[in-house]
Write a structure and sequence with these properties.
This protein is mainly alpha-helical and 526 residues long. 48% of the residues lie in helices and 1% in strands. The chain has 32 helices and two strands. A two-stranded antiparallel ribbon has the order 1-2. Helix 4 runs parallel beside helix 6, helix 10 packs parallel to helix 12 and helix 28 packs parallel to helix 30. The longest helix is centred in the C-terminal third of the chain and has 18 residues. 42% of the residues are buried.
Length: 526
């Protein structure tokens, strides 16, 4: 007889620990490299006599005729096989699947009843330690659950990760299953390996109806997982507003921190659930928030959660509050969240309280740099900013907003060679040393050419001149530094200097003819 591998059936019961509801698809017959065996054909056509004759057949996976009959839901074959000599009702496959487990998974209620009446053990688990009762809850088959419980199935038996049947019922929001299990004395606050209770599992998935039923039956609303998360924390994390309302109505503690020290308000702000933030704001203790070391405003800014950020700002949160990580504005700029930074600046955040402009320049974010400058960030001397950026677009933006380029051309002496590698934080590092660094050397000529448009009559130091002499821009640079600058150029610089950096931000709004406005605008944008 041709031997047949039953791996496709076995695979049906391999369940991922983290996605317990999914089950692999059965391999189609077109994918097989051999034909189905005589046993399979006999079971599928319901040939009781032939199946009985093959009752003792067992393949390499320990799959028997009884397993096949249970899989196919052939009740007559199951009954006949149970009467056959030498057939064990609880014989397991290599995956530790009994015929009962297979019948439950395939939702063959009649086969399940026959097997239980024949003495099948309802508590034999598979390799994942999942019992037939657990599988019946996965299938959401209340009648099968009732049948298994009536035959003595252990209602609180756990799978490998500690999940019980009630966890599964709660996750699926099946009230009938929850009721059946609780009537059979299921532990309402059973904990899995991570101390997750059915109520916490229901809250995590937004199963409000199941959660309400569990609470009515005594489930604790303030129990914590091994990470300190409560049902309220999980509902806030995943944005289940109705679940949060239910928990708050049943006195869930809005000031109980998780192991990381974050309150539910922090979690909701971090994940951008503005409706939940509004619910929690009046219930959250300012003392507890302060003790956490981080404000909800910081978290929403860091994660660019604009709606939550607006709710927090409207509630009166101090936009200039500084924690160990700095201000909320610094968090937003550090994370590259220009929109969050804009919200904070519009709400009155101080762009000069911390070196946020230097940080934005270092990141090369022109949009953020321009935003900070438009909201009053002071433009420092160019060498200091130049050491924090290697982006020409940022440099151009700084110059257009009035950054003083003259210090780059201040006459100076060159330090000895052994000091050329000093860090940028050390005083005395000259512009020519930076322009010769690997970061800038390839675009040194373009940088100097750009800077010369923002200064008057200046000269290059010998080191800078030597660096640029072979560049295509050198003739123009040499002409600009060796000859007097045009009067129009000097006048424009003088007018811009008199306007000051703050007025330069609104130069386009001056009631002047277009040609004059273009003249006053920096040529660095062209």
């Amino acid at each position: 007889m041709t031997r047949f591998t039953y791996a496709e059936y076995i695979s049906l019961f391999r369940t991922n620990d983290t996605k317990r509801s999914s089950s692999p698809q059965k391999t189609s017959s077109s994918e097989r490299d051999i034909e189905p065996s005589e046993l399979i054909c006999a079971v599928r056509r319901g040939d009781v006599q032939r199946v009985t004759e093959l009752a003792s057949v067992c393949d390499a996976d320990n799959w028997t005729a009884l397993h096949e009959a249970a899989h196919c839901g052939q009740t007559l074959c199951v009954q006949a096989l149970l009467k056959a000599r030498g057939v064990c009702v609880d014989k397991r496959t290599l995956q530790e699947q009994t015929a009962l487990m297979i019948a439950v998974h395939r939702r063959h209620l009649d086969c399940v009843k026959i097997l239980l009446e024949a003495g099948a053990d309802p508590d034999i688990s598979n390799k994942n330690k999942e019992t037939p009762l657990y599988k019946a809850c996965e299938q959401e088959c209340v009648a099968m659950v009732e049948l298994l419980l009536a035959c003595g199935a252990s209602v609180n038996q756990r799978c490998r990760r500690g999940w019980t049947a009630l966890h599964e019922a709660a996750r699926r929001n099946n009230i009938a299953l929850c009721q059946t299990l609780l009537q059979a004395r299921a532990a309402v606050d059973a904990r899995n390996a991570d101390d997750v209770t059915p109520a916490i599992e229901a809250a995590r998935h937004g199963r409000t109806e199941a959660l309400a039923y569990l609470i009515r039956n005594g489930a604790g609303v303030n129990l914590q997982t091994c990470d300190g998360n409560t049902a309220l924390t999980e509902a806030c994390r995943h944005g289940h507003g109705d679940t949060v309302k239910l928990l708050l109505q049943h006195h869930a503690d809005a000031n109980r921190p998780c192991s990381a020290g974050l309150l539910p308000l922090h979690i909701a702000s971090q994940h951008g659930h503005e409706e939940i933030v509004s619910l929690l704001l009046p219930l959250s203790s300012r003392v507890r928030v302060r003790e956490s070391g981080v404000s909800p405003l910081h978290l929403s800014a860091e994660h660019n959660q604009l709606n939550a950020l607006r709710v927090l700002i409207r509630s009166g949160c101090d936009v200039n509050l500084r924690r160990s990580s700095g201000s909320a504005l610094l968090c937003a700029v550090s994370a590259g969240n220009t929109q969050a930074a804009a919200e904070l600046l519009r709400a009155g955040a101080d762009p000069d309280a911390e070196p946020v402009l230097l940080l934005a320049a270092e990141q090369g974010c022109v949009e953020t740099v321009a935003l900070l400058l438009e909201h009053g960030a002071r433009v420092e001397a160019l060498p200091a900013l130049l050491t924090h950026t290697h982006h020409l677009s940022v440099l151009r933006c700084l110059l257009e907003h009035g950054c003083d380029a003259r210090p780059c051309f201040t006459p100076h002496t060159h330090p000895p060679e052994e000091h050329a590698g000093r860090s940028r934080s050390e005083p005395g590092l000259q512009f020519c040393s930076w322009i010769a660094s690997p970061r800038w050397s390839r675009s040194a000529a373009e940088v100097v050419d750009l800077l010369l448009e923002c200064v008057g009559n200046v000269q290059l130091c010998s080191r800078t001149a030597a660096l640029l002499r072979d560049a295509p821009e050198w003739p123009r640079i040499s002409d600009s530094t060796s000859s007097p600058r045009p009067l129009m150029h000097l006048c424009r610089l003088r007018v811009r200097e008199q306007l000051g950096t703050r007025r330069l931000r609104s130069i386009d709004s001056l009631p002047l003819p277009g040609p004059v406005l273009r003249y006053l605008s920096s040529r660095t944008s062209s």
